[in-house]
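Let's do one together. I've listed all components of the complex below, 1696 residues spread over four lines.
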Amino acid sequence: MSQSISSQLVNLLAAFLLLLAFAMLSQRRILTLIRLFAWQGAALAVSTAIVAWSTGQTHLYFSVALTLLLKVILIPWVLHRLIDRLFVRWDVETLINIPATMLIGIGLVIFAFALAAPISQMANTLTRSTLGIAMASVLLSFLMMIVRRKAVPQVIGFLAMENGLFFAATSATYGMPLVVELGVALDVLVGTFIFGIFFFHIREQFDSLDIRHMEKLKED
Amino acid sequence: MTHIPGIAFQILQSMFVVLAAPLLVGWVNQCRAWLQNRSAPSILLPYYTLAKLFHKDAVIARNASPLFHLTPYVLFGCMWLAAGIVPVLATDLPFAPAADIIALVGVFALARVFSALAAMDIGTSFGGMGARREMLIGFLAEPAMLMTLFTAAFISGSTQLTTIVETLAHREFAIYPSLAFAAVAFLMVLLAENARIPIDNPTTHLELTMIHEATILEYSARHLALIEWAMAIKLFAYMTIGIALFLPWGIAEAGNWAALPLAFAALAVKLVLAGAGLALIETVLAKLRLFLAPEFLSTAFLLAVLGMLTHFLLLT
Amino acid sequence: MEIALVLGVPLFGGLLLALVGHKRWAPELNALMSLVSLAAAALLTVRVIADGPMTAMEEQFFVDPFNVFLVALTALVAFTTALFSRPYMRIEQHHGRVNTARLRLYHSMYQLFTFMMLLCLLSNNVGVLWVAMEGATLTTVLLVSLYRTPASLEAAWKYFILCSVGIAQALFGTILLYFAAEKVLGPGGTSLLWTHLYEVRYQLEPTVLSLAFVFLLVGFGTKVGLVPLHNWLPDAHAEGPTPISAVLSGLLLNVALYAVVRSKVLVDGALGRNFSGGLMMGFGLLSVVVAAFFLSRQKDIKRMFAYSSVEHMGIMTFAFGMGGPVAAFAGLLHMTVHSLTKSAIFFTVGHASQKTGTQNMADIRGLIEQSPAIGWGLALGSIAILGMPPFGVFTSEFMVLTTAMHEHPWATPFLLIALGVAFAAIFGKVQPMVFGETTAHRLPHPPALIPVFVHLGIVLMLGLYIPPYLVSWYRQAAALIG
Amino acid sequence: MISLEVISSPLTGSLLAVVSWLAISALALIPAGNAFLARRLAFPLSALAGLALAAFGLQAIWLAPQQMTLPLGLPDLPFHLRVDPLAGFFLMLLGSVSAGISVYAGGYFRNETSERLILIGLQYHVFLASMAFVILADDAYLFMVAWETMALSSYFLVTTDHKLPAIRSAGFLYLLIAHLGAIAILLCFGVMHGGHGDYSFDALRAAELTPLWANVAFLLAFFGFGAKAGMIPLHAWLPEAHPAAPSPVSALMSGIMLKTAIYGMVRVIYDLIGNVRWEWGMVVLAVGAGTTLFGVLYALMQHDLKRLLAYHSVENIGIILLGLGMSMVFIGFGHPAAGTLGMIAALYHTLNHAVFKGLLFLGAGSILHSTGLRNLNDMGGLIRVMPKTAFYFLIGALAISALPPLNGFVSEWLTFQAALQAPILQNGVVRSLLPLFAATLALAGALTAMCFVKVYGIAFLGQPRSPHHPVSAPGAGHDAGGMERYGMAWLAAGCFVLGLFPSSFLLMLNRVCASLTGQSLTADALTGSSWLWLVPTSSEQASYSPVIFLVVIVAVTLLTFLLVRRFYHGRVRLSDPWDCGFPEQTSRMQDTADAFGQPIRHVFGPIYLMQRQMPAPDDPAPRFSLKIEDRHWYWVYLPVARLAEYASSKIALLQQGRISIYLLYSFLTLIALLVFVR
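Okay, and this is what the predicted structure of the assembly comes out as:
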């Protein structure tokens, strides 16, 4: 496979990633959200694999494996289990209505592209145009965290942000050094577990995972 | 040792003031009686009164403190000091630099503070009232007096009374509008400070109106005599200060002993006129209500300040 | 070797305590492990003083004047806090607020947190620094919610979410940094090593670095507690156990600021102008002013001192932002004195609220009467933190202010107004707690107050006299980052 | 090897004295503190150290400045010490006045428990030492450290009786204003510094300031030091904190600590900023005049003795400022000789006020200690219970009332003399304004006399006003103890010495001020002044001889006494008071402190914020109550507090408790920064 084809493939996957980010932003149902998140992880893994294969950066395969393991299998599974155990199957509520969120999201994408354009010029990797997309998906996940009212979607937003970051790492630099990749993965893993513990605690205390219950600590 | 004649003269002059002071009071009383169509008492009546008082046994409240006993003497001492400083007949007073006009005001203040303290010593209602009113008059009269004196001091460039008088008396004649303001202010202060109408009435013991008399209610006999005498000296001193500042002509220069008789005559004439004037004022004016006294005195203060400003305005 | 010891001891301690942390003697073991790390840190310090900067383990770790003093400080505060936590947690257990299982978690996490802090400081790899920083959040987040009260859960949740999101931005910044470094150093492990980055900092791509710095500043700045990213800080400080508040304020914020300053050095090198300084000064000033006005509204004692930490981090950020040998020196000194003073304050505050059974300041009264040591400790600590001489906080504030006055005179009125408002707020609340009729009771275990006075003693000394070796140390560090 | 010469040099000598203070304070930390030992040993020792300090200060006035550095402080800025004539003068003030107060304190604290005494001893001596370091400091850092340590140690002394809420709030207000002032001073140093990187006073002196920055520095220094000195409107802490403190501490604060503010003002404005401008003088004069009048008018309304004395401290600071302001005006117009005179007047008053206000606070302390009373309305007749205290208090009262021949008069006289130099000025407006400020001074002097007639008359004279009064209960109440009396006697002697031999102090101050203004008094003044005569400018213009003054009054008084005895008799008959024949007398018919102030309230009504409660005409047990509040609270302090509160309530809206909002902040910050980078 020539450089241009793999580059086109990566670009395609990048677009897919962005699309998924938008889909998550607009998604009302929590189970679909988890599924979308898993898809995003899969897209990330595939694109990393393509980069690894086409550039011969073998350590990226570790990254691929980690992504697959963590983000496509383990975390969605854990989240599913949690939702089963906590009976939180209801729809996702948002603070701002979804069309408005989408509009803001489009604005963000344009902003991220504008920001990334001069940097992309400098990159000599085959995936240089994807840096803007990575940044956009980070910002979109951020937006998602802001507008969601429940704890679980917020966490999914956070994890999606990590996906965006990983994508940035692979696309812009062919991946971070291995030790860092491993460390980050470990952090994500531990973090997910701690989130899980938290869901139980919160549920126990407030009988709900609605974070509106957690607005007591403030200045009056 | 060149000062010896001067020192001797200064002591003599102060003795003269001390001895002559009751006579001035007698003269003022006589004039007033005439003006009020009364038959006048003897001009020497104040002396008789003093002698009578000195002979009596003193009656003192049981709870009087040493301060009470001391005060009449302190008052007398202060007034004597004032009498020694003011150039009455001549300006050759070697000790006069010991206390300039500011210190002179200080002497009067010292006397006032002591008399007010003594008034409060026994702890009577009138005593406290007297002390309060005395200090009320004092705090307004004192700055007015200082400002008056400052006006003169600015003209002569000195705060020494002798120097001021020499400058005013022996310089070429000039009209100082600022001094006119000062003179009016000084007259008002004089009336207030010496417990005269319209501020106070030395001849009555009306409880609602008396000021100075209330402070000496508890004194009797020799103590009262000393206080009365000190008051007489104070009146004399004030009058001579006024004369020295505003009508200094005729006063003897330093070392010019020949001019003394003339100076003496001039002083006598001025005092006779001033005493009569005082009596006239006391007859013509009515006593003010107590709370108009601050107004009266602040007018004096403002006039004095105005005088001082006039001095600077006309100078530029 | 020393580095391995410094990092190994708390890691081992954390694992060990995970097994035996529920035992009766666990608090002592915890303190002992901290003591051993302190000794190791001291060894390392001696070594660095003797031999100068060094790297270890294929350059993955390094020590230079900047981080070695923070390592020593971190180890010291970790040790004294462990000493304090010994009676504190026993009393908490006595009051039934924690059980043995949670104590095990607590002790284990305490050591792991220390490990993460030291790893942040010693790691030469900017990526590992990020990992350790996130690790610090992960180790403390369950401690913040240790009491499992609704408020503590809420605080921990906010802490977790805000810090994780923040730190994710920092990761993006790190990626961008790597992206730039790769151009110069080539792909592979060395491109994220600080020592290498430092050498090539003038060749890094300025556009990328400025973008990276924004992400790094927002990311690590969240952990520093810069306004308006600070919102997790008061909640987490107020609701967690007091030893954790002490180490959060005394260590975590410093380490996060350390990361920001490290980034600043690279960005300044690349940009050749004081772009990062301006941003840091702006954030610093905003933090100082906003935190000062927050102070006067506080009712909870730990929350108030948390805002005071925000204020002081603002001062430090401002100082580092100004740059130059004096300001950087002042910033380093302020890091030292602030972490010592603030942790000392939290020690006294912890015991004070145990004595009175509340964190509500209106209900804490007359400490000096019932236990003079706590009362005086709180009074002197507050006075020190408010920047009154002869305590060392004044020394650094003096240097910051005087430098600001001739470099950025516009900033000084803001700083001074904030200092005045902070003084009125904190002192007005501390005074009635210290003085007056008492509401305090006796404690079941004797409180640990030696750490308080050791800290305050050092701070007092730094106000009057800075030892020459410390000066040369700070100077070298300041030269490195100025 | 430390030779005797080194020890006897003023700088090392005074440093040793100060260090011995610190050593005494450390002694207090030894746990086995014996209260008796602390009182009988520590305080007299500290008095000795004070005397030594005074001696070294006196010596320093006549020597060239000396400098040294200590191996402490900042890395680039070790502690610089320096004594020059100005510092020497203030060291002398500190040492000599504190000596009396320390002896007194040894007696005063006799009823304290050991623990409290240890704390008091520690704080007291740290306070003394920090004041000395303020004066000795020769760099901005040491100055600030000493300055704030002074505030802090005195704060803890003020709050000795911290269980009373009023004392706590007084302490808070005190420390807050002190700290705000310190911030301004710090800023002032920063402005003066002008970018040379060195904060030693030598560097600050050398820095050239543009007129604008010089003005800023002046205003900051004036504000900062004024806050400590208690000029309006920053005086609010003073009448709160001074009564709250134990009396020896009030004496130290009012007598000495306020003077360090004057020291700072002189040091910074004349020495460090330099190039004094006449406009500054006018600012100082205006504030000084306001402070003077305000202080005395509010003092007249007080019935708490220590509060009253505190307001008088405000007044006296105003008088000092008047002198300083005049000197600035003269110097600004290029008449340094007259400027020197004004400054001499100010510094002389500084010393005088330290002595007599110290004495008065000690006297108030003895009253409080003996009777437990601070409210004048409950006192009366104390002269019979405590005659010795009454005697010393009278001296203080006469001195503060500016009555000749005591010391207060001398400095006011000198201030007047400075004002009378006005004709040499070129500017017509300023020339005619100076005498107006003199008029305020005259008014204030007379009002002070009134106030102290009130204090003395009501506290010591008359009859006891309260049934719980010790005079009413026979055997209760006692005069001041031995050490208390020695302390008061020392200060009372100071009133006399300063009052009677002013010319030697004039010459001394001439050297101090000439070292700052560069011009001494006229040759006439220097040759004309002898031990007998005080001549500020020339003997034609003005002179004063307190000795002759006193001799004449005493001689005449004695002579009259003897003559009256000799020629008449000394017979006395004791009886009940006459009181115009008023039949029934109770002690409640006497004037109270409030009643005594009534005429003033009438005349100056609009100045006060009064709340009066008149009894109904048919009230069988009528009570009159009067509350006078300081208008500055409503004009300055409360609005500032409200403003701060408003700002903080607005800023508090930031923290809503909602995590989404917090995330939004982070998000927006990020976006904003990214836009900024673009």
